């Protein structure tokens, strides 16, 4: 069975305390992502980092060239690791991500990052549509509180709902410890 490629989505400074769009549990998610990254590097597993920048300086976060748009130091790319720049929620939309995956012969992807309800969800669903065998490491992902129709939805429930949906039809959803075991 081919080795999975590790895909780290949007683990960027603006999502951490002090950033422009702080996520609930982002520090713990990044710590788990760092464990996945370390294991991938030791095993010689391909690693791809996805970094989001909004094309407008009026964006609420991830402004091009800003400190907040940089990849978080704990999971910073090594020189031989690809970094895909995106401007949309879906990491495959108008990027070279599929080309990079094809070049290394990827059939299986392990996904982690942020936000659970946006870019992780969109990237996972797009990857499934492209035929990849997928694993999402749920405790290496983070999100934030949401509101819908006057109803407050805590981040933990947002995260659980999206992981449940991805696990139902798109990916094997596991913890960091189970993945590394």
Total beta strand runs: 8
Supply the CATH superfamily name. Answer: Isochorismatase-like
Structural class: alpha/beta
Please mark out the parts with pLDDT under 50 across 5 or more consecutive residues, or reply none. Answer: none
Structure write-up:
By secondary structure, the protein is α/β, with parallel strands linked by helices. It has one domain (5-180): 3-Layer(aba) Sandwich (Rossmann fold). The protein is 33% helix and 23% strand. It has helices at residues 26-43, 97-103, 116-129, 155-169, 176-180; strands at 5-9, 47-52, 82-86, 108-114, 133-142, 146-148, 151-153, 172-174. The protein has a 6-stranded parallel sheet with strand order 3-2-1-4-5-8. Helix 1 (26-43) links the parallel strand 1 (5-9) and strand 2. Helix 3 (116-129) packs parallel to helix 4. It is globular.
Short description:
One of its GO terms (molecular function) is hydrolase activity. By secondary structure, this protein is α/β, with parallel strands linked by helices.
């Amino acid at each position: 069975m081919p080795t999975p490629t590790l895909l780290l989505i949007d683990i960027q400074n603006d999502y951490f305390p002090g950033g422009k769009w702080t996520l609930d549990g982002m520090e713990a998610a990044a710590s788990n992502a760092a464990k996945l990254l370390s294991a991938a590097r030791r095993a010689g597993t391909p690693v791809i980092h996805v970094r989001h920048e909004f094309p407008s300086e009026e964006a609420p976060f991830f402004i091009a060239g800003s400190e907040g748009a940089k990849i978080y130091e704990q999971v910073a790319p090594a020189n031989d690791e690809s970094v895909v720049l995106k401007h949309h929620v879906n990491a495959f939309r108008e990027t070279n991500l599929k080309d990079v995956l094809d070049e290394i012969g990827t059939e299986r992807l392990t996904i982690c990052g942020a936000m659970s309800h946006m870019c992780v969800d969109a990237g996972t669903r797009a990857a499934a549509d492209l035929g990849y065998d997928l694993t999402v490491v749920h405790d290496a992902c983070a999100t934030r509180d949401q509101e819908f129709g006057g109803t407050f939805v805590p981040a933990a429930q947002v995260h659980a709902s999206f992981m449940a949906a991805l696990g139902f039809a798109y990916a094997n959803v596991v913890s960091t410890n189970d993945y590394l075991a």
